[in-house]
Design brief:
Elements: H1 2-13, H2 17-27, E1 34-40, E2 46-51, E3 65-67, H3 70-81, H4 84-94, H5 96-119, H6 143-153, H7 159-167, H8 203-206, H9 216-220
Antiparallel strand pairs: 1-2, 2-3
Helix pairs in contact: 4-5, 6-7
């Protein structure tokens, strides 16, 4: 029975073509290198996408759990705009138990990423060894990352991600579907990739500086 349950969980993690289309519509761009769907709405739509630890272009990618549902991302953005991350950083500085639990969340994030790398056949990515995301293990720099981690891992793993979920209950709760009208479902899904995921986004990891972008004036100047 346990084996069958585990198999069902494994199957539900695998992204279908429909999942990838929904993710592209949620984000407004075509998704790439999504290897699992670790959290779903009660209706089945993705809430969080798990991205491969190494992108198909070779770039190491430490942000494993990417929060995608527009209702949740908007709610978390409200918290960030209200200064909640500063509050959380103050909590970390003042509460040793919370700080220890947050370090454990960092370790759990790394373990989950390694497991996803193994399941997806990518294996270890030494360039990001020990690097998690969102400011872990000592600070809060992106609450979206922490909430995405909590949704993917379940309660009790990331204390500040759990707190973030508790604080957005006014706008989103796990027991209700908020998908209707949350993203554009008309026409074709986005097909043009305008994201900047690539070596230029991670100069410290890939070991070379980001390219210098020319200004409009420079680009238009005659040679």
């Amino acid at each position: 029975m346990e084996h069958n349950t585990a198999a069902a969980r494994d199957e539900s993690r695998q992204p279908s073509a429909h999942d990838l289309e929904v993710l592209s519509r949620q984000l407004g761009r075509p998704v790439r290198d999504v290897v699992e769907i670790p959290a779903r709405c009660i209706c089945g739509n993705p809430l969080v996408a798990a991205t491969a630890p190494r992108l198909s272009n070779g770039t190491p990618f430490p942000t494993t759990f990417y929060l995608t549902h527009p209702v949740i991302t908007s709610a978390v953005s409200r918290l960030e705009a209200a200064g909640v991350m500063n509050e959380m950083n103050d909590q970390l500085a003042a509460d040793e138990d919370l700080s220890a639990a947050y370090r454990s969340a960092h370790d759990a994030y790394l373990a989950a990423r390694n497991a996803i790398g193994e399941r997806s056949g990518i294996g270890a990515v030494p360039e990001i060894d020990g690097i998690s995301a969102g400011g872990m293990p000592t600070r809060v720099k992106c609450l979206h990352v922490l909430v995405g981690h909590s949704l993917a891992a379940g309660p009790g793993v990331n204390p500040l991600g759990d707190e973030g979920l508790d604080r957005i209950k006014e706008w989103w709760t796990a027991d209700k579907c908020y998908c209707e009208g949350a993203w554009d479902t008309a026409g074709e899904a986005p097909s043009r990739d305008l994201s900047r995921h690539g070596p230029q986004g991670l100069p410290d990891i890939v070991g070379r500086p980001a390219p210098v972008r020319k200004s409009a004036a420079t680009a238009e100047a005659p040679e």
